[in-house]
Amino acid sequence: MGISKPFPVFSFLLILPLYFLFYxxxxxxxxxxxxxxxxxxxxxxxxxxxxxxxxxDPVKNVSMFSQVLESTSQNLRFLSKTMPKPEFIFKPLHExxxxxxxxxxxxxGIHLRFRSGGHxxxxxxxVSEMEKPFILMDLSKLREIDINIEDNxxxxxxxxxxxxxxxxxxxxxxxxxxPAGLCTSLGIGGHITGGAYGSMMRKYGLGGDNVLDAKMxxxxxxxxxxxxxxxxxxxxxxGGGGASFGIILAWKIKLVQVPETVTVFTVTKTLEQDLGNxxxxxxxxxxxxxxxxxxxxxxxxxxxANNGSKSATTSxxxxxxxxxxxxxxxxxxxxxxxxxxxxxxxEMSWIESTVYISGFPSRTPTTVLLQGKSPNPKINFKxxxxxxxxxxxxxxxxxxxxxxxxxxxxxxxxNPYGGMMAEIPESQIxxxxxxxxxxxxxxxxxxxxxxxxxxRHINWIRDMYGYMMPYVSSNPRQxxxxxxxxxxxRNKKNGKMSFKQAQVWGAKYFKDNLNRLVMIKSKVDPENFxxxxxxxxxxxx
Length: 541
Ligand SMILES: Cc1cc2nc3c(=O)[nH]c(=O)nc-3n(C[C@H](O)[C@H](O)[C@H](O)COP(=O)(O)OP(=O)(O)OC[C@H]3O[C@@H](n4cnc5c(N)ncnc54)[C@H](O)[C@@H]3O)c2cc1C
Ligand SMILES: *[C@@H]1O[C@H](CO)[C@@H](O)[C@H](O)[C@H]1NC(C)=O
Ligand SMILES: *[C@@H]1O[C@H](CO)[C@@H](O)[C@H](O)[C@H]1NC(C)=O
Ligand SMILES: *[C@@H]1O[C@H](CO)[C@@H](O)[C@H](O)[C@H]1NC(C)=O
Prior knowledge:
This protein is α+β, with helices and mostly antiparallel strands. The protein contains 17 helices and 18 strands. The protein has a 7-stranded antiparallel sheet with strand order 15-12-14-13-17-18-16. The protein has a 5-stranded antiparallel sheet with strand order 5-6-10-8-9. The radius of gyration is 24 Å and the shape is globular. It binds flavin-adenine dinucleotide (FAD) and 2-acetamido-2-deoxy-beta-D-glucopyranose (3 copies). One 2-acetamido-2-deoxy-beta-D-glucopyranose (NAG) binds at residues 44-46. It is found in: Secreted, Cell wall. Residues 82-258 form the FAD-binding PCMH-type domain.
């Protein structure tokens, strides 16, 4: 059971005299922990780091600190006043700064959190509810992207967004792409650690299925690549969840072929327009996982308040890797119930489709991808996920819509599987949701800061999740680790958890792959330095 912070008492005694020395030299500084960290960084890197650009602390300038903390954080729930805040934020400018940060956090016994794109659903990249004090390393200044069309590959640093990656690929070629997330502000660093699905998954699998190599800083501050980390660790980092095995500095990815012209559409139906759920039932039976793998049709469920009464709508939001005529042909044969017409379809380049499908208003210039912005305003949210292996019967759908209409601001997204997703074995990477999955459900509830009773939204989503149990996967009830959900279980202080407890939530994310993840974790990080509320636990004896 021997997991503890490495040498906390020892390092405190060691550093104390040094700190007083440092303090007298730089009397403007007011945060001892930060001073110790800076001193240690200097000793462990040869690359300078101008303090004004790299260190942000609440004592020196609280408005600047808040601005940096909030910058990429997506969930307002974890930015509230009551949430624990990092002692300071460090933005490394160089790989060796990341290496030194691991060495120094260990030496000083400071809990380290790190963030690439800040999209973690439970805020784990910038808030530690488990352990204090903690510091935040924000990788947003490490965002170089190097595209190599000749050998169909690219290196992307962790702090780059997927939108930037897509843009840089398209800049070099109109027939290359990458099959990662729909939301363009995702950080490539954290995103791929959970698998990374997007609108080309039925054709090419996940982002994590298309990784060739990686650069990672391990628990000893060593810089590793695929060859030096070994195939076990390389397997674990492509889907085993963020921040359990090391800090990814960059991913080398395999580019995929996209046609010059793709087609998108969004067709919205009210409940009245889909009487008897005929369209939705046909989507479940055929259109989700059985049509050509060039076609990705997801369903967005939302509740609209209309003239005092609420109504639910379903929007069929799609990308087809091909032209309009070919798409209309596929739809006429396979999914005529939707009634897709030529005027619903818009032909465009693949890069334009990434802007469309992420939700920016139509015809937004593709340069928006370089701004690292999400199309949606920031909000408080709670989400959950499920995987569906048998079509949900109409009786189940009726109750589901009833629940949906009870909510004030709820959303559901059903995303289709099949195609390549069903061909890749469950153990290829840690992401196990493959053959037999028809679609994934994401439930979301969101509310503004002004909401006086946020708990009712969380109650609603838990209630909805309870209602859906008979219709979704079971033993385990599978969940998507990129949609992290702490309701499923959490590690205790210092990341401690018995393997038995962790199996409850770990198996939901990873199924049988959990065992291999735990073995690898125990080998490469035996002191559990990389820990958070849902990090892969050690094999405890
Ligand atoms: C609006 C929105 C849309 C989304 N759309 C999709 C989608 O289309 N497809 C999909 O698959 N997922 C999607 N997600 C989920 C998303 O993939 C995950 O939240 C992912 O972890 C985000 O990565 P990040 O770097 O932006 O997040 P961060 O919050 O920075 O990190 C997430 C986790 O990974 C760890 N981490 C961060 N950087 C690194 C690194 N360099 N090395 C190791 N660990 C690291 C963090 O410590 C944290 O535990 C979406 C999320 C949001 C909020
Ligand atoms: C810094 O550079 C010197 C001289 O090149 C070298 O001896 C030392 O090991 C380097 N230190 C680090 C931490 O890289
Ligand atoms: C604090 O940071 C803000 C930027 O957020 C800047 O405008 C301001 O001048 C800074 N204040 C001090 C005292 O440095
Ligand atoms: C809204 O409802 C009122 C009263 O039921 C009705 O008179 C009005 O026409 C409705 N407006 C719309 C836009 O449907």
